[in-house]
Specification:
209 residues; alpha/beta; 2 domains; two-stranded parallel sheet; 11 helices; 6 strands; DNA/RNA_pol_sf; hydrolase; nucleotidyltransferase
Length: 209
């Protein structure tokens, strides 16, 4: 509902005086006009919405594939932008990374169920592509999932979720957390959202075991 209010404020001068349909995949939002009990914020929204001639229409997510594709642009961009020559680089890197070489041998000999080879590429559980440690490929993928306009300099968890959905390499969690924690732009511009911890207070001495 916050997104709907924001859009109506931005496009207010286009929408006033005309009837339009607001389509949403949130079924609770579609009942907003007939809701009896309102919070103070919702009451302010109702007051603002009274200017418009509109209908809220529920549309399930499976029938809303175009909007869903747009809302997942971060994941699409992070996978498609880097993947231009990435498979070729990964194939080449598998021959230079000592750990990857051993894993390829194990997969070829059928000694592991967690890894398998397809078209010269190494895959692991969840059909995630194994990325060898070679030519800063790890850093390139993290940079694509964090620094780009699509990604929007997300925090550690959201940045880690993007490469984890399609790729795998050892110590991925530590690599992502270190990159985000030490990224200069985020350190300069982002505001800490936690209150200061304050001074340490000594615990009272116990009088019995």
């Amino acid at each position: 509902m916050t997104a709907i209010i924001h859009c109506l404020r931005v496009w207010r001068h286009y929408l006033l005086g005309s009837r339009f349909i607001v389509k949403t995949d949130n079924i609770a939002t579609s009942y907003f006009q007939s809701q009896k009990k309102l919070s103070p914020k919702q009451a302010r929204w109702q007051d603002f919405l009274a200017e418009f001639d509109y209908v809220l229409e529920y549309r399930p997510g499976k029938a809303n594939v175009v909007a869903d594709a747009l809302s997942r642009k971060v994941e699409l961009a992070s996978i498609s932008t880097v993947l231009g020559d990435l498979p070729t680089r990964i194939k080449e890197g598998l021959g230079h990374d000592l750990v990857a070489k051993e894993l390829v041998k194990l997969a070829e000999q059928g000694k592991t169920r967690q890894l398998w080879l397809e078209d010269g590429l190494l895959y692991t559980q969840g059909r995630r592509l194994y990325v060898p440690k070679w030519e800063d490929m790890w850093k390139d993928l993290i940079r694509e999932c964090h620094d780009t306009k699509w990604a929007g300099h997300a925090g550690q968890k959201r940045t880690r979720a993007l490469p984890e959905s399609s790729y795998f390499w050892p110590q991925m969690r530590d690599q992502v957390e270190l990159y985000v924690k030490t990224f200069l732009v985020c350190q300069q511009d982002k505001v800490e959202n936690k209150q200061p911890a304050g001074m340490l207070e000594p615990l009272p001495t116990s009088e019995h075991p």
